[in-house]
User: What shape does this take?
Amino acid sequence: MTSIGTLHYLVVAAALFILGVIGVLTRRNVVIVLMSIELILNAVNLNLVAFSRLWGVHGQVFAIFVITDAAAEAAVGLGILIAFFRNKETVNLDEMDLMKW
Amino acid sequence: MPAVLYAAGFQAGRDAHPMTVGTGFAARIMEPVATTFFFYLLSGLAVLGGVLVITRKNAVHSALALILTLLALAGLYLMLYAPFVAGVQIILYAGGIMVLFLFVIMLVNLEHSEKEDQFNHQWVAGVLAAAALSGLFLATYVTGRALFPQRVLQLPEQSNTQSVAVLLYGNYMFSFEIASLLLLVAIIGAVVMAKKRI
Assistant: This one.
């Protein structure tokens, strides 16, 4: 525990990943579910950058691409949310069941 | 000892030691200070922010907690000698994506959604699935503890941006262009979906 190694960063990333998964599976508010997805992406980023310390700068380049993808996905997801909210006036995930049989 | 390091920096040029900052007479070695304390502080802040994101009733509080997590992660990237990714994280993630989230929360914020139940009716199954996943992580990290080597790469600290740029515009040029195309598509999609009349 005296010197911080790679495994310490991996455990922190795993904790953030688990928190994101719990948020996606349990919350009813759509915006908070989208924010939990961002938590998951950040956990992956921490993993990538932690391993880039061992194996070269490639992990950091991949982390930059992940951040770019997260921006595009957040924009599109929030656009869908706004379009849905204009029709149904709710942000409750349980009430978004138009495609259920 | 500092005099020796000054002399080494002046005579051997900028690459005398990977942690050299400055050139000539102003060269000095930057050693990491209080690594353990800062690691636990930053990772504690990140996990605290994560817990607050998934438990708050008010969506604005969740967004602020996520900003706390993002800034703590940027600090962790700095500790991992990745200053460019840390800067990108602060500018793009905390300064761009979270502002987008806050704008949308402002648009869809309903008073009564704070008074309803916050967790859906299948939260037990969700927590059980997350517990199973955490068990898998634990098993992996405990059995694979010997896989991670002790030595870390000593990359020169002042040329991290240059190294990232060489890879980004060299090996990964195609992915870079595709990412810009992806952003263009995302912009057009978001504008079309959020318009009142197409």
In short: Chain A touches chain B through 75 residues (CB under 8 Å). The longest helix of chain A spans residues 58-88. Helices of chain A lie at 6-26, 30-55, 58-88.
